[in-house]
Design goal:
The structure is a homodimer.
Chain A (H helix, E strand, L loop, with lengths): L5 H13 L7 E3 L1 H8 L3 H13 L3 E6 L2 E6 L1 H19 L5 E9 L4 H6 L2 H11 L8 E5 L2 H10 L5 E3 L2 E2 L4 E2 L2 E8 L3 E7 L9 E5 L4 H4 L7 E7 L3
Antiparallel strand pairs in A: 1-3, 2-3, 4-5, 4-12, 5-11, 6-9, 7-8, 9-10, 9-12, 10-11
Helix pairs in contact in A: 1-3, 2-3
Chain A binds a DNA duplex through helix 3.
Chain lengths: 229, 229
DNA sequence: ATTACTACTAAACGAGTAC
DNA sequence: TGTACTCGTTTAGTAGTAA
């Protein structure tokens, strides 16, 4: 399937739909369509041929013009665009935000917390994976990333409840599903401990990220954080 | 304002919005955008320059990428597309349908009915114009037009109530706002009388259409009928 | 790393026209 | 009237590369 420039086709479908061709067979001359598109009759004709070839419309040529009906496939395309827009416009938060930070070695305490049975159980249940026992620490270096991280805190998160054992209390944790380096699915965790400032984020994943992505201290890593609907 | 090919820009705006740039300033490299667009880095760069020039985005260039925020104008563009799609997809009926017919001279009874005070009052109130005292009769010649007309009957219409005077009853009439020959705003009226079959439609307008559009019997006339929400 | 210019190639467009 | 072909022109797209 040729993906390139398919937006021409989507927009042509939209114009055809404005003439009712998504519900009923409509008689539309190439000249008329051309005027609606702001293009020439020849271009309109070509577009219709292309849409037909792609199975987006059903076309019957008559001496008085084309009888055009958008196919189910075509309608589905329009609906997909509609859903995308609805999601973007109606949603309260952007669908994803991207953070970049520098890998550094922490105090090794991530492992201590992550492996607590009460946390682990919730990670598996709410994130869908058992985290590798350790966190990847990223230092945010630009104002943009720090500002973005602080915005993220206001977004809805997957909540991991705190608990207490015989010795001390363990605080609640907020998680955001995330994709690390466009490759590995994991999660960004916030407020696990308080002794890192707002310029540090911690990442967990089902695998050992340092090994899997061949990360060394100082490497810049991109994290795409998904926000929740 | 250059209207041509603004689809590219809308589509690019959509992709930027998917990265959250409609709500917050997002850091997006031309390379990254290019991947999302299925185009080259150079093309993405050019698109961003074009969007910036048109005031659809605000762009700040940094060594790590562009900081991009879709402007209010840009968001408005996306919302307009959204509204159009919502209207098309959620609406029960196509927004307009087009009929073509041949002008013919009727029995002159249109005038008789149209000028009845009880009808006229309702025309003015519900259509917003006082009809010229006479109807333009159009004979539908193709199967398509006749089929379309019959579909139209099921669509919601502006209802003109019937009445009775001392002599007889006058039936209810359905009206659809319409544009005749892409020039004059008037209305198509259905079921005014029963002695014309389904292959005939009657048009009223605030002006004398035959004179204004220089119509003679046998001329083919295009009528764009607007359906109601 | 980036962005974006220049120079070139590929694609789209539309005038003319056949049917 | 219609649609849609050919083909010269215009426009969009990209590789290479500078900053």
């Amino acid at each position: 399937m040729s993906e390139k420039h398919e937006w021409r086709h989507i927009f042509t479908l939209l114009k055809l739909a404005e003439m009712g061709a998504h519900r009923r067979t409509a008689k539309i001359s190439t000249e008329y369509l051309a005027a609606k598109l702001g293009a020439s009759q020849q271009t309109a004709s070509r577009y219709l041929i292309e849409l037909d070839n792609r199975g987006l419309i059903k076309r019957t040529i008559t001496p008085e013009g084309c009888l055009i009906k958008i196919t189910d496939v075509g309608v589905k395309e329009l609906k997909r665009l509609y859903s995308t827009l609805r999601f973007l416009i109606e949603a309260e938060y952007p669908p994803s935000i991207t953070l970049e930070g520098i890998v550094f070695t922490g105090l090794g305490e991530g492992s201590y917390y992550i492996t607590k049975e009460q946390y682990k159980k919730q990670f598996i249940e709410r994130l869908g994976f058992e985290p590798y026992p350790g966190t990847l620490n990223l230092k945010l270096t630009t104002d943009y990333d720090i500002k973005t991280r602080s915005e993220l805190e206001a977004y809805p998160a997957i909540e991991i409840e705190g608990f207490r054992n015989e010795n001390r209390t363990f605080g609640a944790v907020k998680c955001y599903p995330a994709t690390i380096e466009n490759k590995v699915k994991g999660a960004l965790i916030l407020a696990l401990r308080s002794h890192y400032d707002a310029s540090v984020i911690e990442i967990i994943a089902p695998i050992f990220l340092r090994k899997h992505l061949k990360l060394k201290d100082g490497r810049k890593v991109k994290v795409e954080v998904l926000t929740l609907p």
